[in-house]
Amino acid sequence: MKAAVLHRPGDLRVEDIPYPEPGPGEVTVKVEASGLCPTDIKTYMYGSSAAKLPVVLGHEFAGVVEEVGEGVEGVAPGDRVNVPADAYCGKCRFCRAGRENLCENPITFGFQIDGSHAEYVRVPRRFVERGLVFRVPDGVPLEAAAMTEPLACVLHDVELAGVRPGKRVAVIGDGPMGLKHVALSRIYGADEVVLIGLTDWKLRLGEEMGATRVVNVQEEDPARALAGAMDAVFVTVVNQQTLSTAMSIASKTGVVSIFAGLPKGASTFTIDTNLIHYGELVLTGSSNYTYREYEKAFSLIASGRVNLLRLISHRFPLAEFHEAIKAWQDKSSSMKIMIKP
């Protein structure tokens, strides 16, 4: 079968690899939609200490069960399914404390095991035993189901920041993760949701998804327009400027959440600690999701309460994976990119 295999940073090849036969307790899925994630790009360009190379990239996917291994119950060939990116260990101190999103020994598609940028993907026993093969209802597009994992990550962030009715929220970054923050902040009842970005068509899409106000930083300074006004600020694009803006627009007792990870050596910035001290700001990060949050995100997609298909700007066959990367790098014209094996 064909798969996008990362051999070392900068060396990714679409090549033939063996079909992943399911072992006992395992499931093999024919991939119908696989989302291109910024983590894929970062791993491709810079590598990752978590990645066991060579490895097939990809962890946001949905498809149809092709085969099930011996002893598998509740999952059958022909089932339309979605599977989370991670199988947490359930044993480490964070899992035992209910913070499984910070698991110390996860199994993750595209890192420890081959991922979904391939014609087929094998789902290991740990996923199956923990009930992590979600059946996608008829009528729900598999492309939408494939975006459950990033939506779950955003849902974790929104809950961590305490978004609820009466709150004023700002989202910095008009990419797909930023717009998911907009949609969920509105679902969680925020009175105001301000989207801050660079691109007019993306900002207009943000309004369609629930933003009550948009700020194009090329035309308006958000630090001046929103100074000290926002109860929660989500930073989905992290650099010195966006971090400084976030700190300046957060209200006293507000929350600033750093959502995006950066390559090693490019993640150190300066902040005004007086804003934290005198304003009692909370500066935090948000990473991954718990299974409770994943199930909630899956339900939001399955019920149609959130429409993520409008975020898809490009679809590429697996053979054109490098073209998909080029499209992703053109931020003026791309949003969510789907790989169609």
Protein described:
With 341 residues, the chain is of the alpha/beta class. Strands 3, 5, 6, 9, 10, 17 and 18 form a seven-stranded mixed sheet that branches. A six-stranded parallel sheet has the order 13-12-11-14-15-16, sandwiched between helices. It contains twelve helices and 18 strands. 29% of the residues lie in helices and 27% in strands. The model has no long low-confidence stretch (mean pLDDT 97).
Structure summarized in a few sentences:
Helices cover 29% and strands 27% of the residues. The chain is built from twelve helices and 18 strands. The strands form four sheets. Strands 3, 5, 6, 9, 10, 17 and 18 form a seven-stranded mixed sheet that branches.
Number of helices: 12
Q: In terms of per-residue confidence, which ranges show pLDDT below 50 for 5 or more consecutive residues?
A: none
- Briefly note the CATH topology name of the largest domain: Quinone Oxidoreductase, Chain A, domain 1
Please compute the radius of gyration using only Cα atoms: 20 Å
- CATH class assignment of the largest domain: Alpha Beta
For the sheet with most strands, the description reads: 7 strands, mixed
The string of secondary-structure elements, in order, is: EEEHEEEEHEEHEHHEHEHEHEHEHEHEHE
Number of strands: 18
